[in-house]
Amino acid sequence: MRVLGIEGTAWAASAAVYDDAADAADATDSIFIETDAYQPDSGGIHPREAAEHMSDAIPKVVETALDAADGPIDAVAFSRGPGLGPCLRTVGTAARALAQTLDVPLVGVNHMVAHLEIGRQQSGFDSPVCLNASGANAHVLGYRNGRYRVLGETMDTGVGNAIDKFTRHLGWSHPGGPKVEAAAEDGEYTELPYVVKGMDFSFSGIMSAAKDAYDDGAAVEDVCYALQENVFAMLTEVAERALSLTGNDELVLGGGVGQNDRLREMLREMCDQRGADFYAPDPRFLRDNAGMIAVLGAEMVRASDTLAVEESAVNPNFRPDEVPVSWRSDSES
Ligand code: ATP
Q: What ipTM was estimated for this complex?
């Protein structure tokens, strides 16, 4: 089966073709992905501009992906949410039109579940705890009784968005995460808040405190270093508690912030100390990408989890625990 995936929740206008006939262990390595990234002229992601980017870029990336496909397409999968409403509606319209034109099934994929499923499938782990550290979200998830349950999550802003808001204050261009990572290499620790409440974390206070520390004269490298140390330790603490709570010994990372070496180092160290296994996908599958949409889309088609066009409305607030997991053999347990 050959599935066309289309991603467009925020900044990445992306299309991919996944051919599950190549179901060797490296099948996902051979996925064709074409992405056209929206880059704001200044400030952060502007929803209207991002949607205009989707309108321009989605037809082009889809055409490139279809040209690269080695044969006909059997299904069209799209990111149904969560994400920016104007972007989702553009991508949803494109996916519906394509599915109808090609006369193939339409699949609505939850973007956050796709972030974790690509890691689960590539790792070969059975039922891992999943840390999704992305721009607009931060979740720790565990699978139970047919759903990915949210064990911990942000109480305010997404983790990447918090870092990006801090760098916007410095006048640095979007995205801020890689720039903070580079600056932190020359930094030392300076005091910043650390906020974990129960199994949840909060990033807005630390982001404001980082802005204040910089305004009060702290070296920018030191603020970047402390921001990374605290934010990533918060994520690592909750991921460890989730492993402990569930008795699980497998952890998978997902989301664009997962491209950060220091975060991966902390998680790997924590897993090593507990005797747990850790897996982080290749960066092209961590940041937003249509490959993960096509791979989960193929699983959903196999489970007959497809959508009638008239029931395919997008959902900007689509939570991962709203998704009945139809594609796992133990989904009825
Ligand atoms: P979501 O998946 O929740 O919709 P998103 O659409 O913003 O989030 P992602 O691609 O998952 O997209 O993540 C983008 C975020 O990743 C941005 O906030 C960016 O600053 C951050 N990021 C990218 N590279 C790094 C890095 N090396 N270190 C830290 N953060 C990073």
A: 0.98
